[in-house]
Amino acid sequence: MLTLECPYCGVMAEETELSPGGEAHLKRFGPGSSDEEFEAYMFARKNPKGVHFERWRHAYGCGKWFLAARCTATLEVFGTYPAQVSAPPQDLQDKIKAKRPDWKGFK
């Protein structure tokens, strides 16, 4: 079972207490965007085998959204962090790189 630590309340929550929110760090496009940009925002998602950044909500806890880095192949969780940042914290990126030398970094 997937267990993530909420960075706000500090609770180690099982996935049954959380709601998934999809891929993290998406550039959102709305009114005024081209059809191609809006289509890519609405439908195009990465589905990597390996390190992935995701949005989660602590639904049965504090109710806040947060972000998590995990491996989709092994379910290894590298860490969680607040949703209000535009990129993963550098210490988390360093931790991933140390465990996964083949990781190409956050883009």
What does it look like?
- The radius of gyration is 15 Å and the shape is globular.
- A hairpin with a 7-residue loop joins strand 4 (51-57) and strand 5.
- With 107 residues, the chain is an alpha+beta fold.
- It has a four-stranded antiparallel β-sheet with strand order 3-4-5-6, with helices on one face. Strands 1-2 form a two-stranded antiparallel sheet.
- It has helices at 35-43, 90-99; strands at 3-5, 12-14, 19-23, 51-57, 65-71, 77-82.
- It has a single domain (3-99), classed as 2-Layer Sandwich (Folate-binding fold).
- It is built from two helices and six strands.
Task: Kindly list the characteristics that best describe this protein.
2 helices; 107 residues; two-stranded antiparallel ribbon; Folate-binding fold; globular; single chain; four-stranded antiparallel β-sheet; alpha+beta
